Amino acid sequence: MNKYAFVLAANLLSAAACAETITFDDAGADANYVQNGYHGLNWDNFLTFDPLTVGEETNPSGFRAGTVSGANVLFNGAGDPAGISAAQGFTLQQAYFTAAWREGLEIHAVASDGVRTYVKDFTVGTLAPTVVSFQWGNVTSVVFSSSGGAMSGSNGNGFQFVIDNMTLTSAVPEPGTWAMLLVGLGLLARARRRAA
């Protein structure tokens, strides 16, 4: 096999499942529920908003502290469990978590691929985001629930947690990626024929 064709094929295969970091800055800033289909996922009980638009200067909380990039953050509505899912599966690599109101908030994450279940428990605070690595591959659903912790001294109360910069890899490439992969495989076949 032609070494150049091999390198091309390897690059195209790696591009077929590239990681994406979702910053939520394109999802709306007015505490709206995230719509299904956003970045190819189904979203259950997650909202996005810009903490600077709701008086964070006078009532600071983990919402503002949890902003890693851009303006918007994601949070679980009413402090209730919230989740993401996709029928074709995805890899949840990592995300930044911050407690909105309660110091030492405990988060329980459960993922499933339809056969296996993955569980991760971690604790977050209100002053700065904590990056949490999952590396759960080909899962179809992840549900986050929160409990515990103590009031941090802000005027709010609840079990909301903030997420920003969620990195995941879609298991099914976009149509454009499939086209690139097919072109690359065609070039690989042509190169093999020429070498023979």
Polypeptide structure, described:
- The chain is of the alpha+beta class.
- The protein folds into two domains: 1-16 and 178-196; 19-172, Jelly Rolls, CATH 2.60.120.1360.
- 19% of the residues lie in helices and 43% in strands.
- The protein has three helices and twelve strands.
- The strands form two sheets. Strands 1, 2, 3, 4, 5, 6, 8, 9, 10 and 12 form a ten-stranded antiparallel beta sheet that branches. A two-stranded antiparallel sheet has the order 7-11.
- A hairpin with a 4-residue loop joins strand 8 (105-112) and strand 9 (117-124).
- Helix 1 (3-15) runs antiparallel to helix 3.
Mean pLDDT over all positions: 85
Please state the second-level CATH architecture of the largest domain.
Sandwich
Instruction: Indicate the low-confidence ranges by residue numbers.
Output: none
Task: Count every helix, treating DSSP H or I runs of 4 or more residues as helices.
Answer: 3
Could you tell me the CATH topology label of the largest domain: Jelly Rolls
Distance between the termini: 9 Å
- Identify the CATH class of the largest domain: Mainly Beta
Largest sheet composition? 10 strands, antiparallel
- Number of separate strands: 12
Spell out the helices and strands N to C. Answer: HEEEEHEEEEEEEEH
Binned, the helix content reads 10-25%
Number of domains: 2
Give the C-alpha Rg.
Answer: 20 Å
Global geometry? elongated
By oligomeric state, this entry counts as single chain
Strand proportion, as a percent range, falls in 35-45%
Structural class estimated from helices and strands:
alpha+beta
